[in-house]
Amino acid sequence: MSAYIYAAIALLCAAVGGYATHLYEDVRYSHLQNQFTSYKAQETANDEKTQVEAAAKTMELQQRSDAAEKAYVQEQSEAAAYRDAHPVADVRLCYQAPNGGSMPQATGGSSGASHPSAAPTNVQPVPSRDSGVRTGPGPDVGGLLNFLAARADAVSAQLRGYQAR
């Protein structure tokens, strides 16, 4: 009978051991499931935090962009109002040179070479001296200068807008 008792005890130990292993695996599974749930909750919180930070940064950049655009439009309208209030009068080119219409003579001689070299053959001839004296008024360039100033104002305002963004 002792063989039957040993077999029964062995069977009982195997059953209890299997049951204990099963309990251990259930506890371990439950622990891992809790860790996973905790990790997912933390990850979701981090994702939400990142999304909130990204939305805040996007909103800040959009506000800066809107402010720069508003400043650009205001600067353009102020410049246009000023140009409209202060029209450019006729601007004429001066035909009469202030020194009487003559160009100063070039001084001769070179300090470096003792013997001047022969002139190359492919140099264009220089025209004779121009007195610079013209009769009548020069052309009106006021409109062109006004256009140039308006374009410079527009480019300057645009660049300031880019810097503000």
Question: How would you portray this structure in words?
Answer:
With 165 residues, this protein is an all-alpha fold. It is 65% helix and 0% strand. It is built from two helices and no strands. It is elongated, with a radius of gyration of 46 Å. The termini are far apart.
What is the β-strand count?
0
Mean pLDDT: 75
Radius of gyration: 46 Å
Strand content is under 5%
Q: How many distinct domains?
A: 1
Q: Could you say which overall geometry the principal axes of the C-alpha atoms support?
A: elongated
- What is the H/E order? HH
The helix fraction, in percent, is 55-70%
Number of helices: 2
Give the termini distance in whole angstroms. 95 Å
Main sheet: strands, sense, barrel? none
**Secondary-structure class:** mainly alpha
Unreliable segments of 5+ consecutive residues: none
Task: Give descriptors for this structure.
single chain; 165 residues; mainly alpha
Explain briefly what this protein structure is.
This protein is an all-alpha fold. 65% of the residues lie in helices and 0% in strands. Helix 1 packs antiparallel against helix 2 (142-164).
